[in-house]
User: Fold this.
Amino acid sequence: MYSALSKTSLVLVQGVFRQRSGVQKNYLQALSWAILFSSVLVLSGCGGSGDGSNNSSTDTDTDTDTGTDTDPVAGIASVDPSFFLADALVTPITEESCTLSGGTQTTCYRIEIKGEPANQDIGPFCPPTINATAEEGGIWFDGSGMVYELSGDFILDLPNIYGDSNWQLYDAATGAVNITNTQALCEAGAQPDLPEELQNFCVECSLDYFGGGTTRVFLLPKNPVTASSAGNIGRDSVGVTLNGVSMDPPAPVDQILAGYTIAAFDDCGGHVNPNAGYHYHGATGCTETIDQTDGHASLLGYALDGYGIHAMLNTDGLEPSDLDQCRGHEDDTRGYHYHAASAGENMFVGCLTGEQGSVQ
Amino acid sequence: MMLSSTFSFKLRHLCLCFLLALIAMPGLGHDSPAHEAPWAVCAEQKLGDYCEYENGIRELFRGTCRAIDTHLLCVRNKPIIKSEQAPLKPAIATETSFNPADLGRVEPLAP
Assistant:
């Protein structure tokens, strides 16, 4: 679109130039070209595809940030097995030897989760019709910082929200929302590069298709070890909540939207896919089970490096202003710990400060 | 008459160019979906660079470009700055501090 705009702009300016001649023309030409050139420069500067298709190398963390962010330090807090809800676990938490991502050999807690939340019901996800209220559907967030309620109005507004008239997630004759309501559709809808017949669906899956929750084993260091440099977020879980659910990295929103699909979340920011089972992509309040006595944000789980992940806001409604680039900081009570981002940002933390355990 | 004509032409010409410049300015002619902003602002940046972006309801997010899988994403680490101006899309978008418990549909904690 921008290149088309630039071409249009160019034609318009050239057309004006053809109407005049002489010194006056030269003066105005110079001025016009200067403005046009500046415009093109600005346009090319905002040409991010949004699919993250940059060429930046991110295999290793060569962070040289020298800004004012607080450098993470070794914390005093560590994983407390008693904080996990018993119903979240397949077996009681045990200890075993482990090797962390930085090569440190230490003791880890072995935490095997059931893969379904111990303190909440799953769903609803997609609104059934274009007349559905917000209570009949879950939520959607795309990383922009906004959280949308999945009502019929949202379904109708999709062409405006994403600026594309090809969005039509419903049957115009009946008003029924196109929902992946079988296992085959659920599995197909979770794939990239959707064929046209699978586009324009609200994708939801039931745990019943997969025999219940997907059990996963987390090995979290009993005593966190600060890494030599912050660890990047990959495709694996970034942590586990106290109610037994994996905290996953940002959902691949561009891929989802490219197929004209909405991978609906329930109100707790989780959804089901064939590989990971039920998992969270954002913190919405469902998992905050350990209140703090000093007004600090409650603890909702632990990151893969063993540091605690707390809610975004303290009880006074404010967010700490000294978070480092991973969204962590230190205090005297908890040591180093993270604060989850808002659900609308489609993430929990931005990187991992400590050497990581593992998840299977 | 000649001066008047020249002035009129200059004025029209400058207005046209000013309009083109406005179209090219980010946030005015830029109609990319808001969800692309956290990725787009880091597309030409390095790991650890400062970044900021604004969403569809004029909230400002400031942070650092961090690697998520193979791409860089602006990870906010400063409190969100909410604009005092009217939101662009108040009808459906909710606050980022959305709490589903407000809807009364979240099961209470297990004892």
Notes: Chain A touches chain B through 96 residues (CB under 8 Å). Residues 1-75 of chain A have pLDDT under 50 and may be disordered. The two ends of chain A are 44 Å apart (CA to CA).
